[in-house]
TrEMBL record:
<dbReference type="GO" id="GO:0022857">
    <property type="term" value="F:transmembrane transporter activity"/>
</dbReference>
<feature type="transmembrane region" description="Helical">
    <location>
        <begin position="64"/>
        <end position="85"/>
    </location>
</feature>
<feature type="transmembrane region" description="Helical">
    <location>
        <begin position="313"/>
        <end position="333"/>
    </location>
</feature>
<dbReference type="Pfam" id="PF00939">
    <property type="entry name" value="Na_sulph_symp"/>
</dbReference>
<feature type="transmembrane region" description="Helical">
    <location>
        <begin position="91"/>
        <end position="112"/>
    </location>
</feature>
<feature type="transmembrane region" description="Helical">
    <location>
        <begin position="283"/>
        <end position="301"/>
    </location>
</feature>
<feature type="transmembrane region" description="Helical">
    <location>
        <begin position="359"/>
        <end position="382"/>
    </location>
</feature>
<dbReference type="GO" id="GO:0005886">
    <property type="term" value="C:plasma membrane"/>
</dbReference>
<feature type="transmembrane region" description="Helical">
    <location>
        <begin position="219"/>
        <end position="241"/>
    </location>
</feature>
<keyword id="KW-0472">Membrane</keyword>
<keyword id="KW-0812">Transmembrane</keyword>
<feature type="transmembrane region" description="Helical">
    <location>
        <begin position="177"/>
        <end position="199"/>
    </location>
</feature>
<feature type="transmembrane region" description="Helical">
    <location>
        <begin position="394"/>
        <end position="414"/>
    </location>
</feature>
<feature type="transmembrane region" description="Helical">
    <location>
        <begin position="434"/>
        <end position="457"/>
    </location>
</feature>
<protein>
    <submittedName>
        <fullName>Di-and tricarboxylate transporter</fullName>
    </submittedName>
</protein>
<keyword id="KW-1133">Transmembrane helix</keyword>
<dbReference type="InterPro" id="IPR001898">
    <property type="entry name" value="SLC13A/DASS"/>
</dbReference>
Amino acid sequence: MIQKLRLTRAQWMALVLIPALALALMISSISNWLDQQQLLSALLIMTGLVLFATGALPEFVSALLVLTLAMLLSLAPAEVVFSGLTSTACWLIVSGLVIGIAITETGLAQRLSDSVTVHLDSSYVRLIAGIVFIGILLGFVMPSSVGRIVLFIPIALVISENCGFEKGSNGQIGVGLAAAFGSHIPTFAILPANIPNMIMIGSAENIHGWSPMFGEYLLLHFPVLGFLKALLLIVAILWLYPAKPERTPVKATTSGFSGKEIRLLIIMVSTLGLWMTDSLHQISVAWIGLAAATLLLLPGIGMVSTKSFNQKVNVSAILVVGGLLGIAALINYQDISQIVGTYALDLMPLNPENHFTNFMVLSLTATFTGVLTTLAGIPATLTPLAGQISELTGFSLEAVLMTQVLGFSTVVFTYQSVPLMMAMPLAGISIRHAARLCLILAGLSVVLLFPLDYFWWQMLGWIG
């Protein structure tokens, strides 16, 4: 006899949200701009995002569901639907997991974390705040979120263990999220720290002949989008994942580095060096990471055993990332972002006499564009339109370009950011925790930080 089906709160939420949002899309005027395939794609994308955001199904099941339906409905060719599984992001996750195993098993993570734990374990507030600001400091010296996350998350997880947090506990999740988000989100306010920043600067220079100086960019963005956003991040984590660290005696490490640690340090320093100079040698960070992971797996050279690899490399995480990137690829293939962008441009209430409204509209447009194109797509989509938007708003060209930063520093869904998707399996944290934090942080940013940023820009003279 079939047992009565019992639905969780998340499943009930998904059952309500999916039909409601589908109905809203069907009756909205935007549906008139979409053909049948585009409308089906939009409905599938929306369903997938709801499933990921609510955690109604196991994440890898949601990913497989989206990929399978996209193929059954012939919404895109297989090379588009499954492009996420062949993308650099998946191989970054594999290499990051292997590097993380090596950092942990050689004892290097323990050595580094012991020196940090004694300064952070006196309170949970101090712990979370300390980890977030360490991530931000790394943004000034390591111009790659991938490098920061691969290096810092294994160390943060050992700090979590030193504080008595078990895997899956609020404390462990909070520490992992603090390391991942702290290394990534506030660092958008540091000029060379993330890929969207550099895409925006490069395209602005090529198209408009202008690019900001490091100090100019930092002064404009870091006080609000860096420092204040970091404070909001800390408050959100403390509220969502309350915990209390245990002060455990940490033994001072007096012995020298072992042979394995020295080999690992050489491989890590070489890898980070190649990551930081990728603009010179033009080798993708994914293939550099994969080369490092291969070295770490080689018998006699590496320090990650086959057993450790089989036990600790999470295949379901790769499926999740593949599904999320498949959603992004489907958006681009069906030209949904371009159609919605054209539709939105006609509706934008831009008026040269209303600077605050213009600022909020441009910032929200950049944020919404990131939902449709991922973060890296924001500058690629909006930079060519900056001159036209400048005329409509009365803002300077430079001010219009800089509003993009508010958009790509505001992550609404995890699939928008490869570093965040990569960080979750490295930290052993479910995507749904990152999804919830993204939504809360995005909401707080729009309500609190966007208006504050407007007044900050006024004080600096960027807006008349």
